[in-house]
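hey so i finally got around to running the thing on that chain from the lab meeting. sorry it took forever, my laptop kept dying and i had to restart like 3 times. anyway pasting the input first so we r on the same page abt which one it is
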Amino acid sequence: MARSPGVVRFSKGGGMSEEVLWERDLHQRGSGSELAVGDDCVVVHERWTRLVCLDRWDGTVRWDVPFGLWPRAVAVAGDRCFGIAQNIDALTCWDLRTGTVLWTVPLPRFTGYITATADTVLIGGWRGYTDLTALDSATGHIRWSASGRAATVPPVASGNTVLIGAPDGEEVRLLDVHDGHELGRWVLPEALRSTDCQRIFAPGGSDRLLIHCGRRTVVELRPATGELRTLLRHDSDQTWFQARYVGGLLWLGDKQGCAAYDPADGSLRRRVDIGQRFAPGVVPIGTGFLLGGDQGTLLRLDSAGHIVRRTTVSRRISALHAAGPADDPDVVLVVTRGTLIAIRIRASHEAVDQFAV
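ok and heres what got predicted. didnt touch it at all, straight out
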């Protein structure tokens, strides 16, 4: 059940306050992979076997449906929600507004990954267990299926295309999501990092995609022109999380914090030492940013990248998500060890002693 709204009370210092819109107990360990954000709602897995849709402003339950013991993947696109549970070999599509099941299709065992576009949902390719298959979002009918059970890292969609690449492979391919036709193929400067579910592709704005290669390199792909260039190459191995393009900057996280780079030339713009592992997620807040550390710290940065506020949350943080308009999100979703917290930043000069709701 969602708690009543409150105000986040900071550890020492003044300047800003964050309004807690609501907090929900998930009754299980929280993780950003079990959460998907819609235009005005958030879908989250909780209580081990339930999938729940919550209003982003007040946390009220729009629908609550049986799902499975744990999600293999959950995604939202338009007015539809898609999910695959680990113990149920099926892909289900729900109406995002009502929770009504629109269709369900049986799947081969160990089918993983969901990549949803406006009218197509792509599944398969996880560990090479099943064929990459595209379905019509409206009906669940198969559009195409690639034989051979080729493995891919988690795909990323860009318009009506999808980018795929084999773990430890040195090539990436761009496919037409409607028919599976290959639109382009590129050789990378280093092999893709081998990952299970961690995303190493990311949108870099409306016209480019970002790709992690090895442990030191990020490349930029512009599908419209076919241009592939090395954007950033570090001088030592890095334990990076997914590259994120937020607020006009390229953000990379590692064990000590995160850094922001200029997407034009790859130059370092700012370095943020969190003092703990970076909790995946960078949320633009006005002219600044909100970051999180896995030991429970929220950090607010100004436009120059200086830390203007550290907020100690009395629980671990798994991930941060932005909710609301893509260019100016109005709610920050904080996934903690066992709860989901929705926060709205607001101006204040209040200075108080500790976190409380």
